[in-house]
């Protein structure tokens, strides 16, 4: 058949049925055999260039041809984040429920920027964010019935950026536009680099970013006295403190800042207080871990990534704000081509005004599926199981005289290292990096590292949906064996 006369039928339902089944089979087989792949991809940079043609095909190919290439050319370059032996960074959970929600969202193919463009998308998002706010026992002012409300962002980085822009514009409305150079941001040095990026984008002067030192004396939590001193100094210098980012579960060591004390300082100085609980927020649905967000009632905004440890396929970052108008005043636009009765009459939420892009996917479907197909009690036990596995690993590490646990574990992250020999910290750091390289290049597992007070620390974050006790004990054996070799 002459390809140029081929009539494209991209929405052929029967083709979807056939190919869709085949794709689901492919993914199911992938999950069944996921442990047979090296967890961390071992390919060299540029590997794919030599395997694929230089230009796109002129004529249709079959799904079998594509899936063959996925098997032989793509999978070798995939790092298997859903492997039960993936312990690097923080997890990025997939699940059957999340996957189905993602599929449904792709199938409906809507773009829900304003309420009118798909009322269900906006309304379901408001409802599931309220559901989750209630599971976390967040203060009433974060629920959508009043001035506050929740919204799904693509990432924690976007969540932090939009609230910083809201806070910036709020303060500039009273201080005057020319005061941008006086605005000061505060955080501990353990805060994710997403905050620095937000400052760069929001035009905060780099010399006005106060990165306050946290150390082992507080288990890497920010000391309120340090914040108070910095704020007082800045006020004396005629600067304007305007934004504080607190952490519940830092990226390096899952440290928890004292929210209530920080919030008090923020409030008395009219500073917007944001709490980043990207990873650890999920654990706080369990009553016994809720204490770690005590003080969140003093925050202006709060974010947690459902795509990390809450079985909701990437991307799904949840953000709650106390004052939705601060967001919409900073981010809303009202072009003629988007005008509609519901928006004009102020009857509805238009989420385009709560985020950076205009277009938005129907992401609440996957969170809704997760909550409905699993239920809160099962989700709490899912979290508890990972925390128990981490506790077991922490114990194994502490029983081995060649290793030490670096910070006390709270959630499911274990931070440890090989101990120094003859107090030689420099050598110890390079040995730990060598160990990291050795375990990761074995393909059997994947862990990552960080630095705490100049010490190279290995991070084992338990939280992949397929991880069981045997994976953790086997991982520890591999680490011990490789340690003998370095
Ligand atoms: N905040 C914390 C505490 C994180 O651990 C991470 C990522 O691991 C982020 C923010 C950034 O997340 P995202 O990729 O959603 O922007």
Automatic annotation (TrEMBL):
Its cofactor is pyridoxal 5'-phosphate. It comes from the Eukaryota. The keyword Lyase applies. Keywords: Decarboxylase, Lyase, Pyridoxal phosphate. The keyword Metal-binding does not apply. Belongs to the group II decarboxylase family. This is Tyrosine decarboxylase. It comes from Brassica cretica. The lineage of its organism: Eukaryota, Viridiplantae, Streptophyta, Embryophyta, Tracheophyta.
